[in-house]
Amino acid sequence: MHETIGTKVFRVAVITFLTVFTMVPVYVMITSSLKPLRDVQGPFTWWPSEITLAPFVDMWTTVPLASYFLNSVIVASAATILSLIIGVFASYAMSRYKFFGRSIFSTTILSTQMFPGVLFLLPLFLIFVNINGATGIQLVGTMGGLIITYLTFSLPFSIWMLAGYFDGIPHELDEAAKVDGCGPVGALVRVVLPAARPGLIAVAIFSFMTSWGEVLFASVMTTEANRTLAVGLQLYSTQSNVYWNQVMAASLVVSIPIVVAFLLLQRNFVAGLTAGGVK
Amino acid sequence: MSVTTVEPPAQKPTVRPQRKNCRPKPSGWWMPYALIAPAVLFVLAIQILPMVIGIFMSFIKLTKAFIANWGSAPAAGVANYSVSLDFNSAVGKSLLASFFVTCGFTVLVVGLSWILGMAAAVVLQRQFRGRGFIRTLFLIPYALPMYAGIIAWKFMFQKDTGAINHFLFDNLGLGGEKPFWLIGDSSFAAMVVVALWRTWPFAFLMLMAGLQSIPSEVYEASAVDGAKPWRQWRSITLPMLKPVNVVLILVMFLWTFNDFNTPFVLFGNSQPPGGDLIAFHIYNASFLTWNFGLGSAMSVLLLLFLLLVTGIYLIVTNWRSRRA
Questions:
Q1: Hey, which residues 52-81 in chain B have their CB within 8 Å of chain A?
Q2: Which of B73, B119, B282, B288 has the most Cβ atoms closer than 10 angstroms to its Cβ?
Q3: What is the ipTM of this complex?
Q4: Average pLDDT for residues B74-80, to the nearest whole number?
């Protein structure tokens, strides 16, 4: 089948427009991170007057970026691992068992997507403060509070996507494992999980991205002790002198690991979405 | 669980036969409950319970004076709601304005995201050199941490040092005064562009995944029958993507309507009326004035609105698919 002139023009036009739209901010981020301070304080230029790596050095001292980075890594990793474990169990139950309350459970989980964050932000904050008063467990200003909050944010999507993925894995596999003497959990861990690896990777990336990028709860529940990148990065611009070159350098550094991971594993992500959507 | 063989039957003659008649529950009936228990626990503790408390808070006068000991705040009845919905008062008027801004924002962002995502997915449906590379490029805004992308746009929208004004006025040679993009009415346009940039790759991702499930034979057969690309899109692609579209549009609607990050990172403490999205508005109403009862009432109203729209949407889409 040959492509007509019309469709070819349409294709080139769409790709050109979207590439420019998508890449201009990325281009600005990269070139500005290589500019000396005077370049970003004067009128904008598309190219640095001189290329310097100084912003990548200075950004660590303007704000304590390294400690924010570490906090973000700890919070996002812990939330991802926990969300994955909890999500695997719940979605396995959804996929393999018919039980009373199954549809209520799935509806409730999905409907949490509808809740405005501001509605439960303050009550959650107050609950954390009260738990601290009653038991001495500190949840505000520590990683723990953020971790358990974030894991519930990615949980609904994880369960939805994993249940779709598990549905695509033949039940005979579990049965065979049970015949060989595995319990339900054994069958899940030894047989189903290895077969669902692409789905697990997709869900892990999604959870990590959710926690890594969350702003609202981070801005209320963090203090200097546990500040994450989502809040820390904005501190550059609240200073009277905005170091845009350093902001861009820092944005680039905090983005690269996650962007690379996502782009390398995007096929898993698409496969996971398709599996969930077929259901 | 065959206990009967162990104990001699003579010891408990009255109980045993009855239990035998009972159908024993299949072994491990509790298994699914044990599996979902952690998820239920966390969702209850972190989302459901705080939301119930939030609804309760909307009925009390929870102001600065009672924040430390919020149990003792006096009941407000529906006062918080009547203040929010009194569109002649300053509070109600600004909430209504924010609601309309959010509606316009949502329609534009969801609509345009869908159009761009669909165009990209259709254009990349056919195999050609560099397709994988372009697809990867298009997904970058989605993969970037949300605040990093928005901060880059914030820099670009600066009046004197930003790329947008430089492009419009210095490169294209537009006359007149360079506008402020992050203050005043232009902030709405700036916010739509940023949210669109961030949202359309998600539509692209979902639609691309959906297109993969359409067999290419359908297109080939229709081409033999003389269908042009536009006709193919309308008669094959669109109907076959319906299940994906129903979910995609609902999810994008909920995310966009609840969007807090875009205005928060873009505008910070200044709240231009054009960029006053409802989540941002409620956050400011709660935390700047420390009137959490009022903020909760507004949040509940927002939730009710979202429930209503989602309910109608699901009924309409179900009804149409049943009729088809």
A1: 53-54, 57, 70
A2: B282
A3: 0.88
A4: 79
